[in-house]
Design a protein that fits this description.
Chain lengths: 107, 139
C-alpha cells in the first residue's frame, strides 16, 4: 500500500512547508462529505500518530491514517494549473466518480 | 460611449466600440453588479504584470456543467464585447457577458489561497446550492 506525489506536487509541498516555517510533511486524510461521498483533506503534519502509515515520495514525507489508507491506496498527488486556478489533484485509482471540481451551482 | 460601471477607486477607461444591442438581461436599477475583493484586485494585478499586457481584463462567465448544473469560468480576455458589463476596481477591469450576468448579479468575487491550492471563487446569492468544491469522490 502506498501514496505518492509527482515532482510538481513535491515542489509545492516543500514550498508550503518553507512558508510555514517547517514541519514533518503532509497528512492526507479522508472525510465523509462532499457530493460524491468522500472528500480529501490535506494538512501539515508535525509528528506521526501511532495509527499512521508513513510514506516518502520525491523527498517529501506523507502521513495517512490507517482508516483512510484503503480509500487512497495507490493515489498519486499532483499539482495542476487549471485555467487561472492551481491546486492539488488526487489521481486515485479507487475513485469511480469525481466531482468536477466544485465551481458548480444550481439556481 | 462607455459601458463601464465604476466602483470607488476606479481607475479609468474600459470601453466598447459600439452601443450595446438590446440585451436579454438588464441590470436592475441600483443593483451592484459584482463585488470584487481586494484579494482579486491584487492577484489579477500581479498576474497581468507577469503577462505584460495592460489590455487584459478578467472575464467571468457561466456555462452549463458541473454536478449542480452550472459552472463558473475565469479567464483573461483582451476583447470587450458589446454585451459585456465591465466593472473597474482599482487597477483592474472585470468583464461579464449579459447572459452570464443574470446568474451572478450581486455576487462576490474573491481569491483564496490555502494549502490545497489557490483559486478564484464566487459567493453567489443567486445560487441555491453549491458543490462543495471538488475534492470529492465515490468508491
Amino acid at each position: 500500500m502506498s501514496v505518492s506525489v509527482t515532482p510538481k506536487a513535491a515542489r509545492q509541498i516543500r514550498k508550503a512547508l518553507d512558508q510555514r516555517g517547517g514541519g514533518f510533511g503532509l497528512r492526507v486524510a479522508i472525510k465523509t462529505s462532499g457530493c460524491s461521498g468522500y472528500a480529501y483533506a490535506l494538512e501539515f503534519a508535525e509528528t506521526p500518530s501511532p495509527d499512521d502509515l508513513q510514506f516518502e515520495s520525491e523527498g517529501v514525507h506523507l502521513l495517512v491514517d490507517a482508516k483512510s489508507l484503503p480509500l487512497v491506496d495507490g493515489t498519486e498527488l499532483d499539482w495542476v494549473r487549471e485555467g487561472l486556478n492551481e491546486g492539488f489533484k488526487f489521481n486515485n485509482p479507487n475513485a469511480t466518480a469525481n466531482c468536477g471540481c466544485g465551481e458548480s451551482f444550481a439556481v | 460611449m462607455s459601458s463601464c460601471q465604476s466602483q470607488p477607486n476606479a481607475a479609468s477607461s474600459c470601453s466598447t466600440g459600439a452601443m450595446p444591442p438590446a440585451a436579454p438581461f438588464v441590470l436592475p436599477e441600483g443593483a451592484t453588479p459584482l463585488n470584487v475583493s481586494d484579494a482579486v484586485v491584487s492577484k489579477v494585478g500581479a498576474m497581468l504584470a507577469e503577462e505584460g499586457d495592460p489590455n487584459l481584463k478578467l472575464r467571468i462567465f457561466v456555462t452549463g456543467g458541473g454536478c449542480s448544473g452550472f459552472q463558473y469560468g475565469f479567464a483573461f480576455d483582451d476583447v470587450t464585447k458589446d454585451d459585456d458589463l465591465c466593472v473597474e476596481v482599482g487597477a483592474i477591469s472585470v468583464l461579464v457577458d449579459s447572459s452570464s450576468l443574470q446568474y451572478v448579479v450581486g455576487a462576490e468575487i474573491d481569491y483564496e489561497e490555502s494549502l490545497e491550492g489557490s483559486r478564484f471563487v464566487i459567493r453567489n446569492p443567486n445560487a441555491a446550492s453549491t458543490c462543495g468544491c471538488g475534492s470529492s469522490f465515490s468508491v
